[in-house]
Amino acid sequence: MTIHTSKVKSFVSQVTQLRNTIHQIPNKMSNNAAGEPPIPDLQFSDFPEDVQLCILSFLTPPEISSFACTSKRFLTLCRTDSKLWFSLCDRRWGSKTQIAKWGSGLISFKHLYRTLQEYENLIGFWRLSSSPRTQINSPNSIPNKPPALVFLEWGQSFITGSRVLPSENGGYDVVKLPFLWMGISPKGEIVNFLQPNSGLKLDSNSIKLCEMGSGSGELVCVDVNCMGDCHIVIEERVGFGGLRNNGNGNGVSEDLIGSGSPPDRLTSEMYQYFANRTSPGGERAWRRQRRREREKQGNKKWESEHFVKIVNYCPTSSRPLQGLWKGICEDTNLDFYLVAYDDIGGIACRRIGDSCKPFSSYAPVFWTSNTTFIESPFSSEEEHIYETREHLLPPGDILCSEMESVSRILYINSSYDLVLPGLAGPTSVNPHQVEGRIWEYGDGTFGFGFLRDNHIIDLKHIAMDGCLLDAIQPL
C-alpha cells in the first residue's frame, strides 16, 4: 500500500534504504557469485506496531487524521488512545512533565495533548502590565510595589506560576514565590488555583485535593484567559464555580465540579435578567439582582492582573544584548532589566518594575539607534573611560577575569534627554550628560554606564536554557 503522508513515506524510505545497505554488506564480502535474491521493498504495515507508533509520533494531529483515512487498519491504530496519543504526548512533553500523572491518570491522552498544546505557550517569563489594588502578603515583597516578573514552568502533573523578585541579601539571588497552580481534574476540566499571599506550597496530597475540587480555603479558583499569544489575564472565577466558603468546610463551591456547563448557566442568567426587566415588578427584581452582583464582587479575594509575555528573554548571536538581565543599581539593590531590539534596528533597555506604571513613566534606562560595535583594540580615550569607573557588585564579589576582558564597545544614550534629531538647539543637550557606553565582556554578559557617572552596572543572566538562575525559596 502506498502511504500518502510525506513524512511517513520519507521515514520508511530511509529505513528501507538502510536495511538494504546492511544486507548488501555480506554479499559484497562473500565470494558467492550468485549472491542472495534482492530484498523486496518494505511497506509501512510490515513494521511492528511499536515501530509504527514511534514513526507516527513525529506527525501532527492533522497529518495523523490524513494517514488514518488510508485504510481501516490504520484507522484503528490511530484511534488507540493509550498507545498512539500517549506516544505523541510523551515525545513532545515527556522530558518536561510526567504525562501519565495529569488528571490523576484518568483522562484520555488525546484530550491531554490538546490541553498541553495550549499550555505550552504559557511556559516562560511574563511581566505585569497592570498594578492591582491587592498586595502580596509576604515579608519578601516590596511594599506598595507587587513583583512585576512572573515565571511559568512545567511541574510533575501541572504548571506552576511563580513571582520572581530580588532577594534582600544584597547579592544576585532572586526569590521565587509560587502563587499559581494550573492542572486538569480527573473529569478533564481545567482547574486553576491561586494563593493571594504567594505562599503556595503544594504537596502530592494537596494537589490531589485541588484536582478533585476540594482544595484549601486559602486558595482562590481563577481563570487564566489568553488574549492572544502574548497577553493573559488572571481573574477570579465568580459565578461559575468560583472558590468561596459554602459551609462545607473545604471552601470550594459544589458548582466547581457540578453538572451543567457554563454556557447553559449563562443562558439561564441572561434569560432571568431580561425577564426581570420586562415583567411586572421587574424593576425591583433587577435592583435585587444588581445588589447580589455587587455583593458577589465585594467577596472577591483577588483583583484581576494582566501579564504580557517576554518572548525573547535570551540573547542570540545576531542580538547579543537582548533578553532579561539583573544588576546591582546605584542604590545597591538588585533590579531587573529587559533589553529589546526594535524593528528599525535600535536597542532599548527598560526596568521590569516600571512596566506596571503608566506608560509615560516607562522610559528606557538607555537606548541607541546605532548598533555598530567598536571592536578591539580600543583607543586610549576609551580605555581611560572604562578603567576610571567602579563596577557595582554585591559585597564580597570579585570581578571575574572574563568580565574584565572587554571584547566590544557600543555607544548608548541616556533616557533623560530623548530629543528628535534636528529639533534640538545647539546648547540644549550636553553630550557628557546623555552619552554612555556598553562594554560587552568575554563571557557574553555586559555592563553599561554613562559619562556623567563614575560607575558601571554589570548585568548577569536571569535564566539560562529555560531555568531560573540563582533562585532561592522564601524563608
Automatic annotation (TrEMBL):
Main location, first listed in the record: nucleus
Pfam families: F-box-like (PF12937)
Entry's localization field: Nucleus
Associated pathway: Protein modification; protein ubiquitination
F-box domain span: 41-88
Quaternary assembly: Component of the SCF-type E3 ligase complex.
UniProt function note: Acts as a component of a SCF E3 ubiquitin ligase complexes.
Name of the featured protein: F-box protein
